């Protein structure tokens, strides 16, 4: 059975979890408290002992959306999907699409579209995002990601930093967005989905 844990605030304690999940959380996600206060950490857990994946959703205000030049309307801002990952031993089993569908449902429940950046060279990730409904913006919307950051490179690619050339500012990432969802309007604090763990 798959379940999703929505950790709404870095200041709140995580719910009690199996020691194995806690170990994977520490190794692959890091300290849940060390993140943006306007973000939600989402954990995908199978049964009680297997952390399958994690993601961070950051709420971007209407002002930030305008500054980023995103084509969203309605003045409700958006959710930015960051640090999306499936743990290496669980990849290739369709978990990424399942997880993404759950995250998009969460966004729809809040009436917010979703934005993310992905390396243009990462064809596997791009295919996965497009398959669940993300659309790439024109090339004018690009983003430089994790430039010269060995720690993030090691975490993202699960390799030693020195074995991959450093990435420079001309290496761009595509910007992907979802279509504006028909969900409910309402500013309010982000919340967990009904029936799911907060």
Layout: helices, strands, pairs:
Elements: E1 2-7, H1 19-28, E2 39-46, E3 50-60, H2 62-67, E4 78-86, H3 95-109, E5 114-119, H4 123-131, E6 135-136, E7 142-143, H5 150-157, E8 173-177
Parallel strand pairs: 4-5
Antiparallel strand pairs: 1-2, 2-3, 3-4, 5-8, 6-8, 7-8
Can you describe this structure?
By secondary structure, the chain is of the alpha+beta class. It has one domain: Aminopeptidase, CATH 3.40.630. The chain has five helices and eight strands. Strands 1, 2, 3, 4, 5, 6, 7 and 8 form an eight-stranded mixed β-sheet that branches. Mean pLDDT is 76; it is low at 144-171, 181-189 and 194-198.
Stretches where pLDDT is under 50 for at least 5 consecutive residues are 144-171, 181-189, 194-198
The overall number of domains is 1
Number of strands: 8
Mean pLDDT: 76
| CATH class descriptor name | Alpha Beta
What structural class do you assign from the helix and strand content? alpha+beta
- Superfamily at the CATH H level? Gcn5-related N-acetyltransferase (GNAT)
Helix content: 10-25%
Distance between the termini: 17 Å
Largest sheet, described in full? 8 strands, mixed
Shape: globular
Radius of gyration: 17 Å
Query: How many distinct helices?
Result: 5
CATH architecture: 3-Layer(aba) Sandwich
Could you tell me the strand content as a percent range? 15-25%
**CATH fold name:** Aminopeptidase
Using brief descriptors, characterize the structure shown.
198 residues; alpha+beta; 5 helices
Summarize the structure.
By secondary structure, this protein is of the alpha+beta class. It has helices spanning 19-28, 62-67, 95-109, 123-131, 150-157, and strands spanning 2-7, 39-46, 50-60, 78-86, 114-119, 135-136, 142-143, 173-177. The chain contains five helices and eight strands; from the N terminus they run E-H-E-E-H-E-H-E-H-E-E-H-E.
């Amino acid at each position: 059975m798959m379940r999703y844990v929505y950790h709404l605030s870095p200041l709140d304690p995580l719910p009690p979890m199996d020691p194995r999940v806690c170990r994977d959380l520490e190794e692959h996600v890091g300290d849940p408290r060390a993140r943006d206060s306007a973000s939600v950490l989402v954990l995908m857990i199978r049964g009680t002992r297997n952390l399958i994946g994690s993601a961070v959703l950051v709420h971007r205000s209407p002002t930030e959306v305008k500054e980023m030049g995103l084509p969203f309307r309605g003045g409700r801002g958006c959710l930015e999907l960051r640090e999306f990952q499936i743990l290496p031993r669980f990849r290739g089993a369709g978990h990424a699409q399942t997880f993404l569908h759950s995250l998009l449902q969460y966004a729809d429940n809040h009436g917010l579209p979703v934005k993310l950046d992905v390396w243009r060279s990462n064809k596997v990730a791009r295919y996965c995002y497009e398959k669940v409904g993300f659309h790439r913006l024109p090339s004018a919307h690009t983003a430089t990601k994790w430039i010269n950051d060995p720690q993030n490179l090691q975490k993202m690619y699960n390799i030693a930093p020195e074995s991959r050339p450093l990435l420079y500012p001309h290496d761009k990432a595509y910007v992907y967005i979802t279509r504006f969802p028909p969900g409910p309007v309402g500013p309010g604090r982000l919340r967990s989905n009904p029936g799911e763990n907060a």
